Amino acid sequence: MTDRKPTPAELNALDVTPGEAAEINAIAHPLLADPAPDANDDLVQIDSTADGVVFITINRPDKRNAFDGATVAALYEAFETLHGADHVRLVFIRGAGGTFSAGADLGWMRDAAGWSESDNRDDAMGLAKMLKALHDVPALTCAIVEGAAMGGGAGIVAACDMAVAVEGAKFAFSEVKLGLIPATIAPYVVEAVGARRARQLFLSANIFDADYAAHAGLIDMVLPEGSADEFISMLTDSIGENAPVAMGEAKRLVNDVAGQKIDHGLMEETAKRIARARVSPEGQEGVAAFLEKRKPRWAE
Fold this sequence. Notes:
Helix content is 45%, strand content 13%.
């Protein structure tokens, strides 16, 4: 770690040429049906595979994938749509052009400085709802961090179930340097790294690298340069035999039991859930396939 102030170049992460940007992630948007009026399909792109893997790409490479209101709305629509996609097992989140996200768009920040407190509260709720929608996606969510994940971008990383970063990636929660606080992302960062570490990261506002992010618990591992696609293939293959509905129920189980007192009520609730799973179509098929030494239908 370093205690120096982030430079504008670092906060904006990596530059890409217009030609490079045009070649990045030219992917379809098959899962979105009726986007919100302020959502822009060009800002967030979605690609999906037949075996239940979805790629969500923040697509503002000329702005280092910084957020503005329209980008937040488009991300919210994407994550909300995935709540009803029971066949989806795995969701990867990336930034176009070699940068995950530089955080808040400077123009958006400039506009917000002139808004009333009420208007700012409404605007912040948009970001809060987007993060909650990501956190509640039933599938396994994984951030692939390249270049930089600053401020709200690092908040998206924290709201995912897991995250990896390519060597050289930089992170920061620099809000206090601007007289602000990382409020809407705080619940997810605290969940990821713990309260003590969050205090250190938020109050120091230091830039830190991928190794420190892994040490802190913000990401799960550091990938060698050029190995992101290999990691994606490995993780995709590793969950190919998992039942999609069961994955969602397992994720909800963690969310519901975390922090709860282990008492008779919790014991009853967990017993009900496994009983329900055993008689569910997936549970019946999965056990039958195991006993018959064949693949379950969802893994064929």
